[in-house]
Amino acid sequence: xxxxxxxxxxxxxxxxxxxxxxxxxxxxxxxxxxxxxxxxxxxxxxxxxxxxxxxxxxxxxxxxxxxxxxxxxxxxxxxxxxxxxxxxxxxxxxxxxxxxxxxxxxxxxxxxxxxxxxxxxxxxxxxxxxxxxxxxxxxxxxxxxxxxxxxxxxxxxxxxxxxxxxxxxxxxxxxxxxxxxxxxxxxxxxxxxxxxxxxxxxxxxxxxxxxxxxxxxxxxxxxxxxxxxxxxxxxxxxxxxxxxxxxxxxxxxxxxxxxxxxxxxxxxxxxxxxxxxxxxxxxxxxxxxxxxxxxxxxxxxxxxxxxxxxxxxxxxxxxxxxxxxxxxxxxxxxxxxxxxxxxxxxxxxxxxxxxxxxxxxxxxxxxxxxxxxxxxxxxxxxx
Length: 383
Fold this sequence. Notes:
Number of strands: 10
CATH topology of the largest domain: Transferase(Phosphotransferase), domain 1
Distance between the termini: 28 Å
CATH class of the largest domain: Mainly Alpha
CATH architecture of the largest domain: Orthogonal Bundle
Strand content: 5-15%
Largest sheet: 7 strands, antiparallel
């Protein structure tokens, strides 16, 4: 259902003027768990997203989305502290979600100077991504800015993982053969926003890679032979995560990029990644891809390598034109390929293959079906 401009503006006004959480989410009663569950239900019912807004209202919807996410996080924290019903200063719900000011966003300076595009290229739960030019070198870049200061730690986690993987002197060396498939940071720093707020910024070289999301949008009836090599790149992300010592935790169509002609992958989205050796959980779910996450994530169990396998298989089901919620696949897909995908989405992690087993079996089944064939992927020229 489309969110009207009046509805979006009313939500923003409520968030800016509220002096209690109840003014936004209503009064809550019961145990702490019951209040948290009720809060989540109300929050989900209130959510607006730019995808559900008219083209002219997408920026406004994106701002409302970020503000509501921050308000929800603060309300959850208040419930845990027993302070949900305490009053606060008007505007507190929105102040951490105010974007970097327009004057600051047009040009960012740190080691280099970045001229940003007038509008963002991508937006997500955690960040906004802009096309940019490095003025000193003329290099094309992508500038990723945290959507709110409270989300800075997640982008800092991503920066830490990428920096470590590109460091040949790291305590636990990352397989050098995999480095080309991990984004390279030009630099990371804080940008000053409104009201002295600070937003974590990550800067990457811009490449010719496209996301699986973009591919499926351009090719809704993607040929299975093209889907085969793309799915193999998706499954490869599980192996890269294992080599990095983390569970990726968000293998979705947005977080796997491929180069259409060279077929080379670029694995992104590491802000969600818990360590595979420490007792860490996946704390952030990409809402639009919620149906791609395995049961253990929602049960708050410790994730492992097979958590990534499940998500890679769900994404691959989408690539092959299947229904990732019902785990159904087209009858035209060769049965051995369908079988390995079905095995990888077993509810019990113990019944799923490892990433290496998944990739080996998928590769064998693909080659038995179609042989080894190079197929350039045609993508529409961006205007």
